[in-house]
Backbone:
């Protein structure tokens, strides 16, 4: 069975196939978009999307546009998050951030363009299934429209953008964040797009997913929460040379996190509990067609929440 | 027959119906989104979308989500354009810009969220037609997927974002822009989204649009070009109290425009020629179902390029 690292490399290759050639009048914009994508990362969202697609028997090629799209959306959010007006980060994964390399205006545009590109890729793929030579491929089209809908919903106000806005607002007001607010921020800023990846993959597998949908949604929420607490702990205890960015930023910025409220020991216990919850939901899925993929996801959840980078 | 002003007010009401209530943890984000939309404007893109939809016999209610979506996309581009790293504008239409009112971080997020919201609205509408009670409404779904595809394409690298990036880049390098580059910038930064509005409206009317598509695309390019040259002239000759923003900005910023290259007299001649071209394309449309709408569009093209604000 392939490891996460194999999957990550495979995702890298697939995403690369959706990048534009750096030429013409848009050259610099495309360079900034490609630079942002190629800066690397775990490719966690496309890997999850692909795995849940396989779990429910999706045609492999149909997963690829959505894998590229979800990574573009994740990347746009990082590019905008790093901007001077937001987190003002100059380094990400050991490399200059997009605005450090291309200037602030181009970084804003590159983020915008990545988000648009994601939706262009998804709607082109949907168009392809509707206008197929032998008539519309209705089953496929259902999956694609549903997947697009999950992704846009969880990237916007009801997900990532909503979570970021509360994060920005509490930062700006300089007040401590309540436990309930932290929960809301993590659930939206981090869990939502992981949940969208898993749900989108599953519905691309067709109608066979049935009532597993709500278990997948719950697993996405739980694993995202555990993942984000681990991130906070790494910001305190992590090794900069492994993480590829400065640690100790939350403390310097006087930022309340789950860990600053609950302490490391209790936070580790929460990570274990949330990860177990997420795994239980995955174990309870009833319509899985590929058991190897279920095992891959269970192992991945452990790896994600035990990671050191 | 209704005037443009009646249509603008109607569009305002329709768009209002798609705005979210300002409550919950996302309250400030939603306030910033709504503030940006409610700042007003000509509502040109939704009015064009609606008119082309009617011209090809689209069901009125199906046009509404797309009218809201295209105005949200236009608005997100203005919010990001006004940012300090871009044009650094503090006033738009006589009111503080979004970042002047809500801060830079929230303005970046509000722009992002408006773009996401547009795609959420469009994909929800598409989902509705696919999952209708009596089975999928295939004809409707075709139109919606096609309209979404036009809009995302012309908002991204192949349109607005592409045009903005060349604009930003030539600004940053501080060099004069060539005539060919100006053409590219106007065609993408301004024409593309007008073209998308007209095309999206037409395809929502169903397959009856046929080969009129290419005429509509040409008309969109021409009218966008004329519209942008008028904007440049207004920046030189306009009345600030009517326009609602500072004039003379291009000159102060040392920015080359079509007008700084060709002079006002020649530019006025170009506006007349492009407007005539656009009107000829509209007159040549063969499958129009509502002739009153054709007349409305012809008059609107004149009004747009003769305007004083």
Residues:
């Amino acid at each position: 069975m392939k490891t996460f690292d194999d999957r990550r490399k495979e995702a890298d290759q697939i995403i690369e196939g959706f990048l534009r050639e750096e030429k013409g009048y848009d050259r610099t914009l495309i360079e900034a978009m490609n630079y942002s994508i190629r800066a690397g990362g775990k490719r966690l969202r496309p890997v999850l999307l692909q795995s849940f697609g396989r779990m429910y028997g999706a045609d492999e090629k149909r997963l690829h546009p959505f894998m590229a799209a979800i990574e573009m959306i994740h990347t746009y959010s990082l590019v905008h998050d790093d901007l001077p007006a937001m987190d003002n980060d100059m380094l990400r994964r050991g490399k200059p951030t997009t605005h450090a390399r291309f200037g602030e205006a181009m970084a804003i545009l590159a983020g915008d363009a990545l988000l648009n590109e994601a939706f262009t890729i998804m709607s082109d793929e949907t168009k392809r299934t509707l206008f197929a030579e032998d008539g519309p491929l209705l089953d496929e089209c259902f999956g694609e429209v549903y997947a697009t809908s999950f992704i846009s919903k969880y990237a916007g106000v009801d997900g990532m953008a909503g979570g970021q806005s509360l994060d920005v607002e509490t930062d700006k007001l300089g007040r401590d964040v309540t436990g309930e607010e932290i929960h809301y921020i993590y659930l939206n800023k981090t869990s939502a797009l992981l949940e969208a990846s898993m749900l989108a993959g599953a519905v691309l597998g067709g109608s066979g997913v049935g009532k597993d949908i709500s278990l997948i949604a719950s697993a996405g929420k739980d694993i995202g929460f555990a993942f984000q607490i681990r991130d906070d702990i790494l910001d305190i205890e992590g090794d900069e040379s492994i993480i590829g960015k400065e640690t100790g930023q939350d403390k310097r910025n006087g930022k309340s996190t789950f860990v600053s409220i609950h302490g490391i020991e209790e936070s580790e216990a929460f990570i274990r509990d949330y990860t177990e919850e997420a795994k239980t939901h995955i174990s309870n899925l009833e319509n899985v067609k590929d058991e190897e993929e279920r095992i891959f996801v269970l192992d991945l959840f452990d790896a994600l929440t035990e990671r050191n980078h």
Q: What stands out?
A: The domain at 4-306 of chain A is CATH 1.10.600.10 (Farnesyl Diphosphate Synthase). The radius of gyration of chain A is 19 Å. The CA atoms of residues 129 and 137 of chain A lie 5 Å apart. Chain A has a mean pLDDT of 92.
